[in-house]
Design goal:
- The protein has helices at about 25-30, 35-45, 45-55, 60-100.
- The chain is mainly α.
- Helix 2 (about 35-45) packs across helix 3, helix 2 (about 35-45) runs parallel beside helix 4 and helix 3 packs antiparallel against helix 4.
- The chain is rod-shaped.
């Protein structure tokens, strides 16, 4: 592993670079998209994904971005479905009026 500040090679478990003294975080294991939050954000509660984005955006940017993306996809799919249902309702109403 390399220090992001001075590019010196350091131990993978190091929290502080011995050369420059900058705190180093090993974010590979910590910052993974949370599959459970992504599923809940898409299927049930898009607001959860938006909230988790703001909670995680500084500490876990990859997980935060993933939660936000799935929440926005869910909102987009919902809007498209509502528009299609609205159009279908108008068409069904127009056909019903035409048949009378």
């Amino acid at each position: 592993m390399f220090c992001p500040h001075c590019s010196e090679e350091i131990a993978a478990q190091a929290e502080i670079c011995p050369k420059c003294g900058v705190r180093v975080h090993n974010t590979y294991q910590e910052d993974q998209p949370n599959i459970a939050i992504n599923i809940l954000s898409f299927c049930c509660i898009p607001l959860l994904g938006i909230i988790m984005y703001f909670v995680w955006k500084d500490g876990k940017p990859k997980a935060a971005k993933s939660a936000l993306i799935w929440a926005l996809i869910s909102v987009g799919v919902s809007v498209v479905l509502w528009v299609l249902l609205l159009i279908l309702g108008f068409v069904a109403g127009a056909i019903e009026e035409y048949n009378y």
